[in-house]
Amino acid sequence: MNSDPFRGVKRLMRRDLLGLEGYQPIVPPEVLSEEAEVPIEGVIKLDGNENPYGCSPRVQRALADYPSYHIYPDPEQREVRRALEGYVGLGAEHIVAGSGSDELIDLVLRLFLEPGDEVINCVPTFGMYPFCTEVCGGKVVSVPRDKSYAIDIARVKEAIDEKTKIIFVASPNNPTGNLTPERDIRKLVETGRVVVVDEAYYEFSGVTVAPLVPEHDNLIVLRSLSKWAGLAGLRIGYGIFTPVIVEQLLKIKQPYNVNLAAQVAVQASLADLEYLQGTIKAIISERERLFKKLKKIKFLNPFPSKANFIFCPVVEGDAQRMHQELRKQGIFVRHFDTPLLRNSLRISVGKPEHSDALIEALQRIGGKGSG
Ligand SMILES: *Cc1c(COP(=O)(O)O)cnc(C)c1O
């Protein structure tokens, strides 16, 4: 008699949401520190693709000096969008900022999806696309990538029907780190569906399709300041759109979605590009050094990356056990074991000393953990 799972206030909730799994959230450093019994300064956090060098020192100063936190931020984001113009190479009429690019994923879905509309997700990829699609009442159509994690354009085209509204493409892809070539993106754009190219790792790849946006009203490019600019905790990202989409997004978004701290931080970051480009360079060169070291470990098969992380299938031994052993030593990486990502690790690129500690730990674990 008590078998109805939708008792009490739950009976009033959206049933499609009650069945959702939810997004697998990241664990904060304080919890990691407690768990590993390592002081927080000693935690080596290589699980969130965050910037190990932090943000520009100018951001810290600008945040401390800003006088007007008691005033609401500008709903039209005039200063943020104007500050981004030069960096993006397109006018403010093409730009909308969000509370992280995650918010823009959600906003774009809200703008285009009606209940039951379909979104094509090229798996394995970033978990926010299916999560936000389902919360918006859309239907996720998963199209597997090929063996080298390239998008299978023919299969995407086959998956398109009259309900298909949006195709998501992370480039570089998370967690595999590979780019989608511009010619493939053009083929997707030719289908007439909205193609969202997520360039959260653009600064580590140097490759963008943003210049194509003015010629293609169904192409959207999303960017983030979380990774290259070290602003993950302040939540700031932006999208590049045709002005018709910008107009609608500005209308439907929460008026104060970009807070003043984030606004101040973007302006200070863009005024300190030389410094930030130095840290990007350091991360890229560390990525190549770490890749070579991982390649020498016989139980790992690292995949070449254009981002700030390296995807690492474990070819001998158990990735979950390695993940656990690393945790005990205060080194945190991402572990995957799904049908499309069997027995794998994803390792964010940290400072050289983080790589050295990781490699040493892996070698130790390898001795007793594999085989
Ligand atoms: C990290 C990440 C984001 C999220 O960026 P925020 O600006 O922090 O919301 C978006 N897309 C991909 C593929 C990511 O890996």
Layout of helices and strands, plus pairs?
Blueprint: H1 15-18, H2 29-36, E1 44-46, H3 57-65, H4 78-88, E2 95-98, H5 101-112, E3 118-123, H6 128-135, E4 139-144, H7 153-159, E5 164-170, H8 182-189, E6 194-198, H9 202-205, E7 219-224, E8 237-240, H10 243-252, H11 260-270, H12 273-295, E9 309-313, H13 319-328, E10 331-336, E11 344-348, H14 352-369
Parallel strand pairs: 1-10, 3-4, 3-5, 5-6, 6-7
Antiparallel strand pairs: 2-8, 7-8, 9-11, 10-11
Helix pairs in contact: 3-11, 4-11, 5-6, 12-14, 13-14
This protein binds pyridoxal-5'-phosphate.
Residues 49, 100-102, 126, 170, 174, 198, 200, 224, 226, 232, 237 line the site of pyridoxal-5'-phosphate (PLP).
Key structural traits:
Aspartate Aminotransferase, domain 1, 39% helix, 371 residues, binds pyridoxal-5'-phosphate, 4-stranded mixed beta sheet, alpha/beta, single chain, Aspartate Aminotransferase, domain 2, 7-stranded mixed beta sheet, 14 helices, 2 domains
